[in-house]
Design brief:
With 150 residues, the protein is mainly α. The chain is built from seven helices and no strands.
Length: 150
């Protein structure tokens, strides 16, 4: 969401969209470098439930923080930034595709993640780090929204 707010400074609708997607991918890369819990050891059905809950929670908290500050440009940049942030993890959703496509997506996704992804982390530590990062990022979003008078 911070990426979507930051993308508003780009000029023109097309550049805002590109900036939002790019900043979304960049935030994913940065956050993946921080030790955290991961989906790798979970069953597919569990992953789908977690992803659905994460999406609902992200939209709910983001909407709450930005509800009085929504500008027309955010209606484009927020979903674009969220899509960019989710793009590096498309390999998890790609598991549902037929074998050749799933294998190709997994290979691309693993190749993209390998250089920067944090090593496996004990679940309790990973969850604690995720909670701290979430609080910090939501606080940052709130501060950015206030400063930019969204």
């Amino acid at each position: 969401m911070i990426a979507g707010v930051a993308a508003l400074s780009a000029r023109g609708t097309g550049w805002r969209f590109v900036a939002a997607v790019g900043l979304g991918v960049l935030t994913h890369v940065v956050l993946d470098a921080i030790p955290h819990s991961d989906y790798g050891s979970l069953r597919r059905s569990t992953i789908l439930v977690i992803v659905a809950l994460e999406l609902v929670a992200t939209f709910t908290f983001g909407w709450y923080l930005l509800r009085r500050r929504l500008r027309p440009g955010l209606r484009l940049t927020l979903p674009a930034a969220l899509a960019g942030a989710m793009l590096p993890d498309a390999k998890f959703a790609g598991q549902s595709l037929p074998a050749p496509a799933a294998s190709w997506i997994r290979t691309i996704g693993d190749g993209f993640h390998a250089p920067f992804h944090a090593p496996p982390t004990p679940p309790a530590l990973g969850l604690a780090v995720e909670i701290v990062c979430t609080v910090v990022l939501l606080s940052l979003l709130s501060m950015v929204a206030r400063r930019q008078h969204l």
